[in-house]
Amino acid sequence: MAARTIDSVLRETFGHAELRGPQRAVIEAVLAGRDVLLTMPTGGGKSLCYQLPALLLDGLTLVVSPLIALMQDQVDALERKGVRAAFVNSSLDAAERRRRLEQAARGELALLYVTPERFRSDDFAACLPSLRIARLAVDEAHCVSQWGHDFRPDYSRLAEYRSRCGDPPTIALTATATRRVAEDIVRMLALREPLIVRLGIERPELFLAATTVAFAEEKLPLLALRVRAIDGPGIVYSTLIRDLEELHVELKRAGLESLVYHGKLSSEERRRAQREFLASEHAVVLATNAFGMGVDKPDIRFVLHAQVPRTLEQWTQEVGRAGRDGKPAWCEVLYFQEDLAIQQGFVEWANPSLEYLMHVYETLRGWGERVATKELDDLRDELLVKNRADNRVSICLKWLEVLGVTAGAFETHDLRVVRELAPRDLPESVGSEAKRRADLEGLLAMARFAGAHEECRRVSIARHFDLDAPPVPCGACDACTPAPEWLASHFAARTTSSGAPRELGWARGDFVRVDGRHLGQIVKVEGEGRRTRLIVESSSDGLRRSIDPRRSRVERV
Questions:
Q1: What is the greatest pairwise CA distance in the chain?
Q2: Beta bridge partners of 511
Q3: What angle, rounded to 10 degrees, do the helices at 457-464 and 433-451 form?
Q4: By the 8 A CB rule, do 224 and 251 touch?
Q5: pTM flag (> 0.85)
Q6: Are residues 460 and 478 located together in one domain of the fold?
Q7: What is the CATH number of the domain that holds 484?
Q8: Are 371 and 364 within 8 A, CB to CB?
Q9: 198-212, 320-334, 376-390: which range is least confident on average?
């Protein structure tokens, strides 16, 4: 396909004047019928690499995407551009799913989005031969690999599903993949001599930083300080819901409004928070990592992490949601060593042993017909699961479903065991000690990155992903540039609920470090200007001291 045609569709349908980076080479490979593996940072324009070719070639592009909300947003955006696109998933009733599949079979759609679970649906399987699938696009392709940071059992069967589609040319896309994960994607999807393009974080508008905190009490004041120093939309991620709620209160005390998004809220409350965030020019959302996938908001000015994420892959994916408009954005993770124990617990709960999975299976089989009267919590109680964050039961249930051992679900009260299971039937990745060890090594890599302060952040990231190192100094990380100066020169302060910018001088409640050694909290500010004195209560001994900020080095933490 001539470059002129690519450019005209790019301009007239997608509203872009030119392609960026390797997009042209990838699009031309897709148009030529080649398999492709593309690793490109969040916001780099991956979707365009299959959406644009779908408008230039005959046939249907089937897009496998992991999240229903992500599909809805992508299809809505395409329809606004006049592109014939639709999705089929469990949010639709059977009649609407059938109508859309018939529409695709008649050749009336250029793109159809489905989850990988859809391939296990009888009505979809029956419709597949009539769809004339010309290309397959696998979004979030790292989910294919057990070494990826978000492995999904149904993704592991995509080579089989691809075969059912007639082995169409395939493009696999992800924001983050180490060389090991990339090789696994190629193998698991059976890509044939693919064009492989792997990029790192090559967006100079993102300032990358990590701050080590010595005490848990330092976190809230530091996060509040960052939020009020940066006007514009932002996301603060936290692993623990209670931390989000405490930060919400801390910000409100400082006159700063925020939205909250986590799994304990109802679906309507979560949707409302997301709508308000997308519509606002200033909103701050405090969220678990369930927020952000599919949030297409170009003007996010900061992404803060209150705890280290489980992997460097997850962190780079989440900070990539900032600054998509090309303007400066601040990306910072707080490193508190004790938080590693929390993430280590999540790693253990994400890797049930083979014995544990067989215990889940034997429990369900032992219930017999009574299983239809049971709830998920009944199974958790039977297995002595006390912590709600322990995800082993849900992971085991998903594997049993994918392997065809069970059908139905607890939610619809029709769960049942439909065939026997022997340990030899299970894929190698189930109960794999190697996977558990790799997950712990991923957490260690994240800790090393967050705890180090000497090496350019982009160099560290490039080494982790086995990519060519960028030139240094990069000019946009805390190892190459003084972070306070970059922050002050690129952002205006946020206004409080009173409508005035919060004074960023010394304030009661601020946590400070005096002369690089003594940590404390300001309990009173006396005088002003050259006569200012700070009454600081020490975190170590509880004593209060009068500090002259002109004679001592006082730093906020």
A1: 81
A2: 521
A3: 170
A4: yes
A5: no
A6: yes
A7: 3.40.50.300
A8: yes
A9: 376-390
DSSP annotation of 155 reads G
Residue 450 pLDDT class (50, 70, 90 cuts): very high
Q: Which of 382, 541, 402, 360 is nearest to 118 (CA)?
A: 402
Phi/psi at 88 (5° precision): -130, 115
Question: In terms of Cα–Cα distance, which of 503, 504, 514 is closest to 548?
Answer: 514
Contacts 24+ apart (CB under 8 A), 115-118: 115/64, 115/65, 115/66, 115/67, 115/68, 115/71, 115/89, 115/90, 115/154, 116/64, 116/66, 116/152, 116/154, 116/155, 116/157, 116/158, 116/161, 117/154, 118/88, 118/89
Is 414 contained in some domain? yes
Dist CA 267 CA 154 (whole Å): 24
Same domain, residue pair 317 and 364: no
Beta strands in 349-392 (DSSP E): none
Residue whose entry in the numeric block shows the structure tokens 């090991």: 180
The count of residues in the chain is 557
Residue type at 182? A
Residues 17 and 11: their CA atoms lie apart, in Å, by: 6
CB atoms within 10 A of CB 160: 10
Residues 49 and 192 in one domain: yes
In a domain, 497, yes or no: no
For residue range 393-417, list pLDDT tens digits in order: 999 999 999 888 999 989 888 999 9
331 within some domain: yes
Same domain, 245 and 189: no
The domain tally of the chain equals 4
Burial of 341 per CB tally in 10 Å (0-12, 13-18, 19+):
exposed
Check whether residue 180 and residue 42 sit in a common domain. Answer: yes
Residues 6 or more apart whose CB falls under 8 angstroms from that of 220 comprise: 246, 247, 250
Q: How far apart are the first and last CA of the chain?
A: 56
**In degrees, to the nearest 5, what angle opens at C-alpha 62 toward C-alphas 15 and 267?**
80
- As given in the structure block, the two tokens for residue 406 are 């069970």
- Residue 472, Cα to own-chain centre: how many angstroms? 28
Q: Is residue 127 a part of any domain in this protein?
A: yes
Say whether 488 sits in a helix, a strand or coil.
helix
**Residue at token pair 């109960």:** 431
- Asked if 122 and 130 count as a contact pair (C-beta separation under 8 A), the reply is no
Cα 155 from chain centroid?
17
Handedness of CA 415, 419, 423, 429 (dihedral sign): negative
Range 340-354 average pLDDT: 90
Question: Mapping DSSP to helix (H, G, I), strand (E, B) and coil, where does residue 464 land?
Answer: helix
Number of neighbours of residue 259 by Cβ within 10 angstroms: 20
SS3 445: helix
Q: Are residues 93 and 214 in the same domain?
A: no
Measure the CA–CA gap between 16 and 479, rounded to whole angstroms. Answer: 34
Domain end, chosen from 431, 449, 482, is at 431
Domain encompassing residue 337: 206-342+440-490
Among 90-94, 201-205, 272-276, 553-557, name the one with the lowest average pLDDT. Answer: 553-557
**Six-digit token pair at 202?**
């090559």
